[in-house]
């Protein structure tokens, strides 16, 4: 039930990165710009191959898992919100069903559910090009949810969202983790990572700088070393804020 990176190396991007990600929990990948977060996430989906090292899913090398099965098991939300075709929201979300061969009725039920989770009910017939950045981000995430993957790997899924939609997405992602999904998020907001994640991987210049429970991996010492900032955690656990 693990998605594991073993000694991943991609020259100038990742250096000997080893990390174990578990299902049933939310993992945050944090680090400064250029630290290798997006590279690690796409290597974990199998989209880019390391020069050395391997990624395994439940102990099986990712490159030995057929592409359609991989697409069913791992849902990936890239950082860019570019959509090549000006589809309706419902059609876009429906693309998430492509790796499955289920009935139209079942597909429709799952698509409705994914759109409801992302509060897209009113947008079903709208064209993607007419949406705001945050609405588009929610539609792309609904497409990932429509796949019902065991793993959700999302690169900055909260960046374009307003406060209320951030909150509701965090609750949905935590709920999915509770139901057994492995949720892996690239997150810049360290307070969000501290309050939301069960496990944090901190990257710095392509290497793992810290790893573990958020209190440990995002300690004031780690923040000083990796981000070069003097910062102090305030507030109670689960509701912490970072004072700079
Ligand atoms: N396609 C590529 N070819 C070569 N180098 C790349 C490529 N994509 C990214 N890089 C470099 O690899 C390093 C890691 O990039 P990556 O996008 O993984 O960082 P990141 O931590 O996600 O950054 P950010 O917070 O800015 O999104 C950076 O130095 C970047 O310039």
From TrEMBL:
GO molecular function, one term: ATP binding
Domain of life, per lineage: Bacteria
Matching SUPFAM superfamilies: P-loop containing nucleoside triphosphate hydrolases
Keywords recorded for this protein, A-Z: ATP-binding, Nucleotide-binding, Translocase, Transport
Domain ABC transporter: 3-230
InterPro entries, A to Z: AAA+_ATPase, ABC_transporter-like_ATP-bd, ABC_transporter-like_CS, P-loop_NTPase
Function comment: Part of the ABC transporter complex HmuTUV involved in hemin import. Responsible for energy coupling to the transport system.
Entry protein name: Iron complex transport system ATP-binding protein
Species the sequence originates in: Novosphingobium hassiacum
